[in-house]
Amino acid sequence: MSTTEAGRSTAEARKAAILGKAVPVFALKGYHATPVTEIADAAGISQAYVFRLFGSKLGLFTATLERCFGLIEQALREGAEKAPGAPSAQVLAAMGDAYAALVADRDLLMLQVHAQSATDVPEIRDCMRRGYAASVTLVHELSGGTRDQVQYFMAMGLMCHLITALELDGVDDPWALTLVNGMTVHGRRAE
């Protein structure tokens, strides 16, 4: 491996490590309220090095979102693999369970929630659109579902966001039980 390749390899590994640290930091306060110094401190590096690798706070945030959507893609694929040859509805259910297990990691979920609240920033809005476009396309391809089935699947994913963000699986009130009914939350199906 050449010195240049080794440098790129090290920079890519460092980027991945920084993105792993950025998820929980951005998840706590979102894009607008999170200084890059907090992410640099969490990663144990200088703020200048973060800027060197990502160019700006916006570059870091969108790269963190792209990592999140990559994890979503991986979860959807793994879910679909659990239902080979099954009807669309079963494939979608398996993919939904895999997604619910993924967003049981509250940091990933809250990163998405904060990103949605920062779509006034065109680059974040565009990144979110690309991520959702890729997710919807992948769900169609892997499940063979109809447009209506995929729309329902995506709507239930957003319901999963609401249930997890508000911790509704622990609320024993009729309105909360209505929303949680039949949903997979934290790896278990609510009744």
From TrEMBL:
InterPro entries reported for this sequence: Homeodomain-like_sf (IPR009057), HTH-type_TetR-like_transc_reg (IPR050109), HTH_TetR (IPR001647)
Record's signal peptide: none
Key words of the record: DNA-binding
GO terms for MF: DNA-binding transcription factor activity; transcription cis-regulatory region binding
Domain spans labelled HTH tetR-type: 12-72
One matching Pfam family: TetR_N
DNA-binding region per Swiss-Prot/TrEMBL record: 35-54
Protein name: DNA-binding transcriptional regulator, AcrR family
Source organism of this protein record: Nocardiopsis flavescens
Lineage, opening ranks: Bacteria, Bacillati, Actinomycetota, Actinomycetes, Streptosporangiales
